[in-house]
Every structure is written in C-alpha cells, then in structure tokens.
Amino acid sequence: MEEVINKLKENLQIIYRKALDADKQLDTLNKDGKGKFTVIFGDDSEFSSRSKRFIPYVEELAIEITALESEKSNHTELLPRIVKKIQTLLVTLEKFKSTI
C-alpha cells in the first residue's frame, strides 16, 4: 500500500503545479472580464468543495490521501474515490490548458 500512496502523492504534486498555473490564468481571465462562472466542478462531481479555482479541490484531494495513509481508513472506499478525483482533475486541467 505504501507504493500506491507514494504514486498518489506524485500525482498530487503534478496536479498541484498545474492547478497553480491554471488559477493564475483564471485570475488573468477574471481581470479581463472573462471566465464568469461560479464553480469548476458542479454538484454532480465527486468533490465536496465548490470553488472558482482549482486549489481547493487539490486541498480536498490531499486531505483524502493523508487519510488513506491512516491505518484506520477504509481503503476499499477511499482509494477508488481518490483515483477518480485525480483523473477528473488531470483531465479538466488538461482541457483548460488546451483551451487557453
């Protein structure tokens, strides 16, 4: 399980860097009067966070990865949810980057 957690953390670092760049671009778009939306991921997503920026979603993911490290966590429920969130963030960040 340690190997899996290390891979998740590696992906989290990649997502974090991409999210920082994307949030900077969103700030620029917002200053230019563009990018008028309320949240990145809606109510139908696996995220409980609701934000116009990516970093809160990354923080939510980091909390869940930390919880996965706990021996008390339910790996069978938490791991698939974390993988889904990583996939969702990576795909969305790539789509955003290609759109800009």
Explain this structure.
- By secondary structure, the protein is an all-alpha fold.
- It has one domain (2-99).
- Helix content is 70%, strand content 0%.
- It is elongated, with a radius of gyration of 14 Å.
- The mean pLDDT is 92.
Shape: elongated
Low-pLDDT sequence parts = none
Secondary-structure element pattern, one letter each: HHH
What is the count of structural domains?
1
Which value, in Å, is the CA radius of gyration? 14 Å
Helix percentage range = over 70%
Instruction: Classify the beta-strand content into a percent band.
Output: under 5%
Largest sheet features: none
Total beta-strand segments:
0
Distance N to C terminus: 38 Å
From the helix content, strand content and strand pairing, which structural class follows? mainly alpha
Count of helix runs: 3
**How much is the average pLDDT?**
92
Write the topology of this structure.
Layout: H1 2-31, H2 55-69, H3 75-99
Helix pairs in contact: 1-2, 1-3, 2-3
In short:
With 100 residues, the protein is an all-alpha fold.
Keywords summarizing the entry:
100 residues; Prephenate dehydrogenase; mainly alpha
